[in-house]
Amino acid sequence: MSDFLYLHDNRLTTLPSSIGKLQKLRYLNISDNPISAFPESICSLSNLIELRATDNQLSRLPDDVARLSRLRELHLRNNRLATLPSAIGNLAELRQLDLRGNPLESLPSAIASMPKLEKLDLRWVNSLPALEWFQSLEARGGVVYR
Q1: Which CATH number belongs to the domain containing residue 100 in this structure?
Q2: Which SS3 state, helix, strand or coil, does residue 138 take?
Q3: pLDDT at position 129
Q4: Can you give the residue range of the structural domain that contains 108?
Q5: How many whole angstroms from its chain centre is CA 82?
Q6: Is there a contact between 44 and 69 (Cβ–Cβ < 8 Å)?
Q7: Residue 126 burial (C-beta neighbours within 10 Å; 0-12, 13-18, 19+)
Q8: pLDDT higher than threshold 70 for residue 1
Q9: DSSP assignment of 33-92, as one string?
Q10: Would you say 137 and 117 are in contact if contact means Cβ atoms under 8 Å apart?
């Protein structure tokens, strides 16, 4: 059994709830699909290390995304996200957060306290003002791409 699942570019609009039973899954790519609602079943994938959900139509993330406690990379480029839930700050293992090309209006300051965050990518985001906590993230060695 593989611990990688590539579902990108398949015209999927949703995922079956049974995907949450793939407990050995470490990498999931659901990019390049017209998915508009984040599949809640993904939040049950406790061993997931990398999630790629780029180039979809996601407008929000659920608070339960914080249950992905082993997640190191979260790629959400080119969606419709205006903000993220503050619960995202509980992703203590997250190292990379890619939010390029989203119409972000705000971000929770909890992101600044993520202990292992190395890279926050905000390129092609013109709607978000520079936030004061960007400096504290950079002061501890994180990089904010703008």
Answers
A1: 3.80.10.10
A2: helix
A3: 87
A4: 4-145
A5: 13
A6: no
A7: exposed
A8: no
A9: S---S--GGGGG-TT--EEE--SS------GGGGG-TT--EEE--SS--S---GGGGG-T
A10: yes
